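look at this fold:
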Amino acid sequence: MQVTTLCLGALVFGDATGYEINKMFEDGPFSHFLDASYGSIYPALMRLAEEGLVTCKAEAQERRPDKKIYSLTGKGRLKLRDALQQPIADDKFRSEFLFTLLFAHLLPRNRVRTMVDHRLAAMKQKLIELSQPGAEDTPGMDFARQYGYAIYSASIDFLENNRHLIEEIATEEEAHV
Protein backbone atom coordinates (compact mmCIF):
# COMPACT_ATOMS: atom_id res chain seq x y z
CA MET A 1 0.00 0.00 0.00
CA GLN A 2 1.33 3.42 -0.90
CA VAL A 3 2.41 5.83 1.84
CA THR A 4 0.06 8.45 0.41
CA THR A 5 -2.84 6.09 1.13
CA LEU A 6 -1.53 5.48 4.64
CA CYS A 7 -1.38 9.24 5.28
CA LEU A 8 -4.90 9.77 3.95
CA GLY A 9 -6.09 6.98 6.25
CA ALA A 10 -4.39 8.54 9.25
CA LEU A 11 -6.06 11.89 8.56
CA VAL A 12 -9.53 10.29 8.59
CA PHE A 13 -9.15 10.31 12.38
CA GLY A 14 -8.50 14.05 12.48
CA ASP A 15 -6.00 16.77 11.63
CA ALA A 16 -2.41 15.83 12.37
CA THR A 17 1.19 16.83 11.89
CA GLY A 18 3.69 14.60 10.12
CA TYR A 19 5.12 13.78 13.54
CA GLU A 20 1.70 12.69 14.83
CA ILE A 21 1.08 10.56 11.74
CA ASN A 22 4.46 8.88 12.25
CA LYS A 23 3.54 8.12 15.89
CA MET A 24 0.37 6.37 14.64
CA PHE A 25 2.64 3.94 12.79
CA GLU A 26 5.27 3.63 15.52
CA ASP A 27 3.10 2.95 18.56
CA GLY A 28 -0.43 4.02 17.70
CA PRO A 29 -3.42 2.41 16.01
CA PHE A 30 -1.47 1.48 12.85
CA SER A 31 1.62 0.04 14.56
CA HIS A 32 0.43 -3.56 14.07
CA PHE A 33 -0.18 -3.27 10.35
CA LEU A 34 2.21 -1.26 8.23
CA ASP A 35 5.41 0.76 8.44
CA ALA A 36 5.81 4.37 7.43
CA SER A 37 8.81 6.52 8.32
CA TYR A 38 9.42 10.26 8.48
CA GLY A 39 11.42 9.92 5.27
CA SER A 40 8.36 8.65 3.43
CA ILE A 41 5.56 10.46 5.29
CA TYR A 42 6.71 14.05 4.67
CA PRO A 43 7.21 13.68 0.88
CA ALA A 44 3.83 11.89 0.70
CA LEU A 45 2.13 14.75 2.57
CA MET A 46 3.70 17.28 0.19
CA ARG A 47 2.40 15.32 -2.83
CA LEU A 48 -1.04 15.05 -1.29
CA ALA A 49 -1.11 18.81 -0.65
CA GLU A 50 -0.02 19.53 -4.23
CA GLU A 51 -2.86 17.33 -5.51
CA GLY A 52 -5.43 19.03 -3.25
CA LEU A 53 -6.08 15.85 -1.28
CA VAL A 54 -4.99 17.45 2.00
CA THR A 55 -4.61 21.01 3.18
CA CYS A 56 -1.69 22.27 5.22
CA LYS A 57 -1.94 25.01 7.83
CA ALA A 58 1.20 26.44 9.43
CA GLU A 59 0.98 27.13 13.14
CA ALA A 60 3.63 29.39 14.67
CA GLN A 61 5.66 28.02 17.57
CA GLU A 62 7.95 29.90 19.89
CA ARG A 63 11.66 29.36 19.07
CA ARG A 64 10.83 26.52 16.68
CA PRO A 65 9.87 26.22 13.04
CA ASP A 66 6.17 26.49 12.22
CA LYS A 67 4.18 23.35 12.89
CA LYS A 68 2.43 22.07 9.75
CA ILE A 69 -1.00 20.63 10.45
CA TYR A 70 -2.57 18.54 7.70
CA SER A 71 -6.30 18.06 7.10
CA LEU A 72 -8.09 15.67 4.79
CA THR A 73 -10.16 17.30 2.03
CA GLY A 74 -13.33 15.88 0.49
CA LYS A 75 -11.29 15.01 -2.60
CA GLY A 76 -8.78 13.24 -0.35
CA ARG A 77 -11.52 11.21 1.34
CA LEU A 78 -12.75 10.06 -2.10
CA LYS A 79 -9.18 9.18 -3.15
CA LEU A 80 -8.76 7.11 0.02
CA ARG A 81 -12.05 5.29 -0.60
CA ASP A 82 -10.94 4.49 -4.16
CA ALA A 83 -7.52 3.30 -2.95
CA LEU A 84 -9.13 1.04 -0.32
CA GLN A 85 -11.18 -0.67 -3.03
CA GLN A 86 -8.09 -1.76 -4.98
CA PRO A 87 -6.84 -5.36 -4.72
CA ILE A 88 -4.95 -5.98 -1.49
CA ALA A 89 -1.45 -7.45 -1.47
CA ASP A 90 -0.77 -10.61 0.50
CA ASP A 91 0.35 -10.05 4.09
CA LYS A 92 4.07 -10.37 4.76
CA PHE A 93 5.08 -11.73 8.11
CA ARG A 94 8.51 -10.60 9.27
CA SER A 95 10.12 -11.92 12.40
CA GLU A 96 13.71 -11.76 13.62
CA PHE A 97 12.62 -14.24 16.29
CA LEU A 98 11.65 -16.89 13.74
CA PHE A 99 14.65 -16.15 11.54
CA THR A 100 16.94 -16.74 14.52
CA LEU A 101 15.12 -19.97 15.39
CA LEU A 102 15.85 -21.28 11.90
CA PHE A 103 19.37 -21.69 13.27
CA ALA A 104 18.44 -23.09 16.69
CA HIS A 105 20.65 -26.10 16.00
CA LEU A 106 23.62 -23.71 16.13
CA LEU A 107 22.60 -22.01 19.37
CA PRO A 108 23.03 -23.03 23.00
CA ARG A 109 19.84 -24.43 24.50
CA ASN A 110 19.88 -21.73 27.18
CA ARG A 111 19.79 -19.03 24.49
CA VAL A 112 16.82 -20.66 22.77
CA ARG A 113 14.94 -21.03 26.07
CA THR A 114 15.60 -17.38 26.91
CA MET A 115 14.42 -16.25 23.48
CA VAL A 116 11.18 -18.22 23.80
CA ASP A 117 10.64 -16.93 27.36
CA HIS A 118 11.11 -13.32 26.22
CA ARG A 119 8.82 -13.81 23.23
CA LEU A 120 6.10 -15.31 25.44
CA ALA A 121 6.38 -12.44 27.92
CA ALA A 122 6.15 -9.84 25.14
CA MET A 123 3.15 -11.58 23.58
CA LYS A 124 1.36 -11.82 26.92
CA GLN A 125 1.94 -8.09 27.41
CA LYS A 126 0.43 -7.47 23.96
CA LEU A 127 -2.61 -9.52 25.00
CA ILE A 128 -3.11 -7.23 27.98
CA GLU A 129 -2.90 -4.18 25.70
CA LEU A 130 -5.25 -5.69 23.11
CA SER A 131 -7.82 -6.75 25.72
CA GLN A 132 -8.73 -3.13 26.40
CA PRO A 133 -10.61 -1.32 23.62
CA GLY A 134 -9.80 2.33 23.11
CA ALA A 135 -12.44 4.91 24.00
CA GLU A 136 -12.48 6.24 20.44
CA ASP A 137 -12.10 2.94 18.56
CA THR A 138 -14.14 2.63 15.40
CA PRO A 139 -15.92 -0.70 14.77
CA GLY A 140 -13.12 -1.55 12.30
CA MET A 141 -10.46 -0.79 14.91
CA ASP A 142 -12.28 -2.97 17.43
CA PHE A 143 -12.47 -5.83 14.92
CA ALA A 144 -8.73 -5.50 14.14
CA ARG A 145 -7.94 -5.42 17.88
CA GLN A 146 -9.92 -8.63 18.45
CA TYR A 147 -8.26 -10.25 15.43
CA GLY A 148 -4.84 -9.34 16.84
CA TYR A 149 -5.86 -10.75 20.21
CA ALA A 150 -6.80 -14.05 18.56
CA ILE A 151 -3.47 -14.22 16.70
CA TYR A 152 -1.40 -13.48 19.81
CA SER A 153 -3.43 -16.02 21.82
CA ALA A 154 -2.84 -18.72 19.20
CA SER A 155 0.87 -17.87 19.03
CA ILE A 156 1.21 -18.12 22.81
CA ASP A 157 -0.58 -21.48 22.83
CA PHE A 158 1.69 -22.76 20.05
CA LEU A 159 4.90 -21.65 21.78
CA GLU A 160 3.85 -23.00 25.16
CA ASN A 161 2.82 -26.37 23.72
CA ASN A 162 5.69 -26.78 21.25
CA ARG A 163 8.71 -24.97 22.67
CA HIS A 164 10.29 -28.31 23.52
CA LEU A 165 10.61 -29.09 19.80
CA ILE A 166 12.92 -26.14 19.13
CA GLU A 167 14.73 -26.35 22.46
CA GLU A 168 15.60 -30.01 21.85
CA ILE A 169 17.52 -29.25 18.67
CA ALA A 170 19.68 -26.57 20.30
CA THR A 171 23.16 -27.54 21.43
CA GLU A 172 23.92 -28.47 25.02
CA GLU A 173 26.66 -25.90 25.36
CA GLU A 174 28.15 -22.92 23.57
CA ALA A 175 28.48 -23.83 19.93
CA HIS A 176 31.34 -22.62 17.76
CA VAL A 177 29.96 -21.57 14.42
Summary: Strands lie at 54-61, 64-72. Residues 96-169 form one domain.
